[in-house]
Amino acid sequence: MKMVSAVIKPFKLDDVREALSEIGVQGITVTEVKGFGRQKGHTELYRGAEYVVDFLPKVRVDAAVSSDIVDQVVEAISSAAQTGKIGDGKIFVTSIEQVVRIRTGETGTEAL
Amino acid sequence: MEELLNTTAADVTQLKYALDTFYFLVCGALVMWMAAGFAMLESGLVRAKNTTEILTKNVALYAVSCIMYLVCGYAIMYGGEYLLSGITGDGFTGAEEPATYAPSADFFFQVVFVATAMSIVSGAVAERMKLWAFLAFAIVMTGFIYPMEGSWTWGGNAVFGMYTLGDLGFSDFAGSGIVHMAGAAAALAGVLVLGARKGKYTKEGGVNAIPGANLPLATLGTFILWLGWFGFNGGSVLATSDVANSNAVAVVFMNTNAAAAGGVVAALIVARLLFGKADLTMALNGALAGLVAITAEPSTPSALQATLFGAIGGVLVVFSILTLDKMKIDDPVGAISVHGVVGLLGLLLVPLTNDGAAFSGQIIGALTIFGWVFGTSLVTWFIIKAVIGVRVTEEEEYEGVDISECGMEAYPEFTSAK
C-alpha cells in the first residue's frame, strides 16, 4: 500500500479528482496548504512599493492506494495537474504500514 | 385683497427660510456621513491588528470635534458667544437682519466640516500613534487651530489684523484649502514628529509595502465619502430656494460627481502605466483627489472642465504618494497627498474658471492656511510628545495598537469566557 501525496495548483483540483475517480481511486483527502519551491514565492506591488509573497497557496491531495495501481495514480495526477508552467507542484509516494477502516475494523488493502 | 397679497408674500418668505434651512440640514447630515467614510477607508487601508484603534479614533475625533466647535470653535470662526449661547433663537421673526436659514442649522453644517478636517489627520498617523495623544491634538485642532484659519477665510476677519484674504482675491468655495489642505497640514506635522511605521523603509533607502487589510471596506469608505461630498459641496451653495440657487446646486452636484469620476479613471490609468497592474487603492485615492480638486470651485467650471480638473488631481495624487514615500514621509492612507497636495491644486485651479479669484490671492491664502496650521500643529505635537509621548513602543506597534490602546481585537479568535 502506498500513500500518494500530490501538491498541486488549486485550480487543477477538479481535474485531478476526476482523473483519480476514473482509474478507480475510492477516496482522497484534500488540504489547503501554502509553500514555496525553487522560485521562493513572488513579489507584488502595493501603492508602487514591492512586497514579497513568501508562501503561495497550493492544494495537497492525499490518496492511499494499493501498490499495483500506484504508477497509474501518479500518471493520472501528473497529466491532470500539469500546465507546463512554474509551480505545477510535486508528487510524493511513501509506503503505508497499516490501514484500518474504523467502522468495520477491516485492515490492510481491504480497508482502502 | 392687499392683505391677502401681504400674507402670501410673508408665507413665501417663510417657506424659503424653511426650505433653505431644511436643505442645509440635509447637506450637513450628508457631510456627517463622511465620518463613516473616513472610518471605513482608514480601517480598510491599515493592517487588521490596528482596526479597533482606528475605528475608536474616528468615532472619538468626531465627538471631540463637535464638542470643541460648540464650546469655542464656532465663536472664534464666526463671532457670537462661547458655548453657542443664543444660537437656538429664531433667525427670522423679529431679527434685526432676517437670516435666510436657521442659525443653528449653520452651526450644524459648519461643525461637520471641522470633523472632516480632523478625520484627515487620523489616517496619516495610523498604526503607530498613541490614541490619547491623537485625541489631545484633536482638542487643539478643532477648538483653536482650524477655527482661527476659518475666521480669516469664511469668517472674513483680517489675518492678525494685517491683511484680509477676501480682498486679495482669495476664493475657496467649499474648502479645498480651508478644510482639506488644513487637515493635511496638521497631518504632515504629526507624521514628521511621529516618524514612519516600523519596517516601512529600509536602511538602503528602499520602500516596503504594507498592504491594507480590507479593500472592500476601503472601497465602501470611498463611496460613502463620494456621497457625502454632495452635501459638502452642494450645501456650500448655502441656499436652494430660488431658481438661481437651485441651478447652482445642480451644477455643483454635477461637477462634484464628474471630478470624482475623472480622478478615478486618471489614477487607474497612471497606476496601470507605472506599475503594470490596476492598483485599487490608487483608484480610490484618485476618486478622493478628484473630489478635493473640485471642492475649491465646483460652481463655475463646465462639466468637462470639472472632469479634467478631477483627472489632474487623480494623476497628481499618484505621483505625490510615490514622492512622499521617497521622502520617507509615511502616510498609510495617502491623506497628505489627497487632501494636501491636491487641496493646493484645487485652490490654484479656481482662477481658471472664476473671475472673482486671483492667482496671487490663492497663493497667499494657501500659504496663510498652510503656514498657520502646520506651524501651530508642529508646536502642539511637540508639546504632546514632551508631556505624554506620541508613539507607542516598538513591541506595542508590532503586536498592534488594538491591544495596547483599546485592549480588544477587531476580529478576536481563540477566546473563551473566563
Automatic annotation (TrEMBL), chain A:
Record-linked InterPro entries: N-reg_PII, N-reg_PII-like_a/b, N-reg_PII/ATP_PRibTrfase_C, N-reg_PII_CS, N-reg_PII_urydylation_site
SMART domains according to UniProt: P-II
Transmembrane segments: none
Keywords: Nucleotide-binding, Phosphoprotein
Highest taxon above the source species: Bacteria
Pfam families hit by this protein: P-II (PF00543)
The keyword Phosphoprotein appears for this protein: yes
Family the UniProt entry places it in: Belongs to the P(II) protein family.
Protein name, entry field: P-II family nitrogen regulator
Organism: Neptuniibacter pectenicola
TrEMBL record, chain B:
NCBIfam families named in the record: marine_trans_1
Family: Belongs to the ammonia transporter channel (TC 1.A.11.2) family.
Organism: Neptuniibacter pectenicola
Subcellular location(s) of the protein: Membrane
Keyword annotations from UniProtKB, A to Z: Ammonia transport, Membrane, Transmembrane, Transmembrane helix, Transport
Keyword Translocase: no
Membrane topology value: Multi-pass membrane protein
Residue ranges annotated for the Ammonium transporter AmtB-like domain, each copy included: 24-411
Protein name: Ammonium transporter
PROSITE patterns: AMMONIUM_TRANSP
Transmembrane segments: 22-41, 61-80, 107-126, 131-148, 168-194, 206-229, 249-271, 278-296, 302-322, 334-353, 359-384
